[in-house]
Amino acid sequence: MNVNETVGGIGEFGLIEAVTKGYRQGAEVLVGPGDDAAVVAVPDGRMVITTDLLIEGRHFRQDWSSAYDVGRKAAAQNLSDIAAMGARPTSLVVGLGMPSDLSSEWVTELARGLQDEGEALEVSVVGGDMVQSDKVVVSVTAFGTLDGREPVLRSGARPGDEVALAGRLGWAEAGYAVLTRGFRSPRAVVEAHRRPLPPYEQGPIAAMAGASSMCDVSDGLLSDLGHIATASQVVIDVRSAALAIPEPLQAVAAATGLEALSFVLTGGDDNALVATFEPADVPIGWTVIGTVAEGNDNQPPGTVTVDGEAYEGATGHAHFRS
Fold it and tell me: Are 275 and 259 in contact (CB under 8 A)?
């Protein structure tokens, strides 16, 4: 493919052919790209489905992230949601809106990122759609299987459970703080903003260990724990001393005047997993960071506290708020 060729120059079907010719299909894919729809086997008769959008200028910037990074991130956000149900992801479909003068190479790099993120999980990109738009919009829908297990919902947390975490928190938010100030270091946090590292395998592990509730942390730990607390009608308390604050986050906090702990408590886009378990059921690979209790007059159901106190300030990202 000519590196100077644009989307408008190669055309929709030429671009589709260039994107899909290298895609490998997993065992569950019965019909892949090329027909009006894909056909994917559903081993136990149920399918787990989630979808997410990335919009240029709001969720990514081309001067901050490569097309490959955007592809990895777009896939990761959806695959993590499948894992948060205790399920195993199997396939993706992708909707892509883009200007006609966008480089076709940018699109093929995006496609490579999508494929590579799912490669280790044997997740296949089975189809999608492309349209012209004023800016780049990436919509990914992911499918998964429960392999005979029941889904782990947000509504199952019980008083007496412990809250546990798998994955890292605060790295992507620290990277965002660095990038918005025009810097590119520490490199580790910048890379974390560009491309998350979700603990995919821990979703099914938590389900098999008896997790009573689980959630993907994409908007911030306190915000997403709030979804569990509200759905389960319980109070959740987070112990700040149990939360790791690695040196790169401390360095960014010192350089920016921000609080390192706030990166961990309220930063999104790392796609960690948080779940609740009976104390004896917390599996290896998970760190206990809090407890679940009944609500009362001072702390009604749906409340999330830090060290027993209300958290002052925003608890994470919220859509449709300026």
Answer: no
**CA angle, corner 245, sides to 241 and 247, nearest 5?**
145
For residues 145 and 219, the answer to whether their CB atoms sit within 8 Å is no
Global pTM? 0.90
Strands 29-31 and 162-166, sheet pairing: unpaired
d(CA 211, CA 204): 10
User: Using CA atoms, how far apart are residues 258 and 33, in angstroms rounded to an integer?
Assistant: 47
Q: How far apart are CA 201 and CA 4, in angstroms?
A: 39
pLDDT in tens, 214-242: 999 999 999 999 999 999 999 999 999 99
**77-87 pLDDT, tens digit each:** 999 999 999 99
Note the Cα 67 to chain centre separation in Å: 17
Span 150-195, pLDDT tens digits = 999 999 999 999 999 999 999 999 999 999 999 999 999 999 999 9
Rounded-to-integer distance, Cα 81 and Cα 182, Å: 31
